[in-house]
Task: structure prediction
Amino acid sequence: MPLSSSAEAPPRASAPTTQSSGASSTAATTTSAGFTYSLPDLVCFAHLHWDFVWQRPQHLLSRFAQYGRVFYVEDPFIHHDQTEAAFAHLEIKERQNGLKVVVPHLPKDLDEATANDVQARLLTRYFIENNITQYVFWYYTPMALDKSRHLKPVLTVYDCMDELAAFKFAPPRLRELEQELFQRADLVYTGGQSLYEAKSLQHKDAHAFPSSIDKDHFGQARTNLPEPADQAPIAHPRVGFFGVVDERLDIELLGQLATAHPEWQFVIIGPVVKIDPALLPRQKNIHYLGGKDYKELPSYLRGWDVATLLFADNESTKFISPTKTPEYLAAGKPVVSTPIRDVVRPYGDLNLVQIAADAPSFGKAIGKALEQAKDAEWLSRTDAYLTTISWDLTWEQMVTLMQQKLAAKTSSADALGATLPLN
Result:
């Protein structure tokens, strides 16, 4: 089967880094905040498409890309025709800060083992062609091991942002491969405290990094942004939710609230995936506006009266740490959530977010939240808490751990080399 890799996108015009776009390097770089960055190329294996929804991987990897080469390897695109495009090849797309999105293209009807073997060969060739010789592996999905375990990273990080095995349509081998990844990983990061409590039992060097916030971006919702055209005709009070609409959304709760409170308008923003859209409640006061670009979200948030986390109580939500919690708060919006553990701790405990478990109590909480927007003391406490978190700080803490681990591994290797006989 022919293997090919498409041409590289043009190198980034400018970036605050000492690395060239065509060679590996570990030269130290000082960030604008005075933070020292010294890591080799970073290769990320992800189950999420870069251009789908802007969330944890994009926040973190776009920051890595400011200071070094980053390759974001997605799951393969399967061709169901017999055109030339159906031959196995890599598509390379350049994104923020010169980050390269690497998309394997495969013909249909390959069994799993063959598909992984083809991707492994494509990646090996791509590494050679682009002089990727010293590199960190950063995994979001253990399923990527089957196409990458033959390669030799200097450091391996597992950023476990979700309990993927609990998600709808999870691959049967995911738990088995996660155990292998725990053995290979030098560091394990988790997307929340609850997930840390579970994963720290399986890896000795696990660290909790809950969802963080780009305060400046979502703070725009407190300014005089124009009203989006598709939201403008919707009456107030508006009760909003943004995020992926999948098995984690409590559609029964949404329907019950809409029926019980026809005076409120429910605005739902996000793509519908893994569930049948026909199952969504369709009351007249529920408005599905579809997916929106990350940069558009503050404009929608500005027009809401209350923001919600309408998550179901099921296996897929047991360990989630919703990024939207601090995003809503940064926009200055009162928030009502179902009792997700990583929302209760710390936001509920600090009385920054109201927690409600069923439709009647959720409705009462929304009623209180409609008044909370006028509470200057609540907003002051919220803003004080938000000063303690940011994606920049999270990224710097992650990088510090990686640099320390890499330095320790290098020292150990040097010490071992010094003890080996010369002949």
Notes: The first strand starts at residue 4 and ends at 5. Residues 329 and 410 are 42 Å apart (CA to CA). Residues 4-212+391-419 form a domain with the Rossmann fold fold (CATH 3.40.50.2000). The chain has two domains: 4-212+391-419, 215-386.
